[in-house]
Design a protein that fits this description.
Number of helices: 5
CATH topology: Maf protein
Shape: elongated
Largest sheet: 5 strands, antiparallel
Number of domains: 1
């Protein structure tokens, strides 16, 4: 997504223990995770703006992270079937002695899923390494009846909010 904006990027995997983060709300959690990831790769003096992001799915107050296995993916997708849930995406930017942290919340409405559809989706391999056990940008797009909010945030990175944070906090305009 970011390369599509014409940005000069270097990807650095974070050296950050996500399990060490605690929070009282989903918003606090994703903001702290995003900030921790970004802070773990900041290199002082290089002039770069470092970006961190993290996403969780929340269904009736319960956090749905990344499924550990097919059984957990099936459970998550079964719980999401025919219902609405929220996707919380945290974003953090650090650079030049400044930082900005925010969260975007999007409401996603799933259609009813059959057990066969859930099994076939799991067999595709897509549910793994994705919060809530689905990726809206792939086959799961056929499960989503509608969304209220930012499609890109559901994909894992809120492009519009990112551009606003860059402009307001770092003086960088993408347009």
């Amino acid at each position: 997504m970011l390369q599509g904006l014409g940005l000069d990027l270097t990807v650095r995997p974070p050296d950050f223990d996500e399990d060490s983060v605690t929070a009282d709300t989903p918003q606090q959690l994703v903001e702290r995770l995003a900030l921790g990831k970004a802070a773990s790769v900041v290199q002082s003096g290089d002039g770069a703006v470092v970006i961190g992001s993290d996403t969780v799915v929340v269904l009736e107050g319960a956090l749905l992270g990344k499924p550990r296995d097919a059984a957990q993916a099936a459970d998550m997708l079964g719980r999401l079937s025919g219902r609405a849930h929220e996707v919380y995406t945290g974003i953090a930017l650090i650079g030049g002695g400044r930082q900005a942290v925010d969260c975007v919340v999007t409401r996603v409405f799933f259609r009813d899923l059959t057990p066969g559809e859930i099994a076939r989706y799991i067999a595709s391999g897509e549910p793994f390494d994705k919060a809530g056990g689905y990726g809206i940008q792939g086959l799961a797009a056929t499960m989503v009846r509608r969304i209220e909010g930012d499609y890109f945030a559901v994909m894992g990175f809120p492009l519009c909010r990112f551009s606003e944070l860059l402009r307001v906090h770092f003086g960088i305009d993408l347009l």
